[in-house]
Amino acid sequence: MNELPPCLKCKSAYTYLDGSLYVCPECAHEWSVDAVDAVDVSASIKDANGNALHDGDTVVVIKDLKVKGSSAVVKVGSKIKNIRLVQGDHNIDCKIDGFGAMKLKSIFVKKA
Q: pTM of the prediction?
């Protein structure tokens, strides 16, 4: 399924396409389809220290993270290689050795 981008103004996920414009029903913001292509996801995602993150970076976990639905914990200092940045609350897609594929928040990692 083709996923529509969130609103550029209020970050609402309930946007819809109206002709050649995306429209946000929550804040009434409208923007062109071409404007979404110009927005770079990685430009706005920063680690806990404020460093910009990019696809393919290696990061280190700065806090013990409980794994939802499990009693396991991702330990502080765990190195995660080859991250992928996505839009949303959990903005890092990665594969952690011993845990598998996960989504993380960028505020809990620092660039290695």
A: 0.62
DSSP state string for 52-96: BP-TT--EEE-S-EEPTTSS-EE-TT-EE-S-EE-SSSS-EEEEE
**Angstrom distances, CA of residue 82 to CA of 21, 35, 38, 65, 90:** 34, 28, 24, 19, 16
Q: Are 82 and 93 in contact (CB under 8 A)?
A: no
Check whether 36 has a pLDDT greater than 80: no
The Cα–Cα gap between 102 and 61 comes to 13
- With CA atoms as reference, report the closest residue to 27 among 13, 39, 44: 13
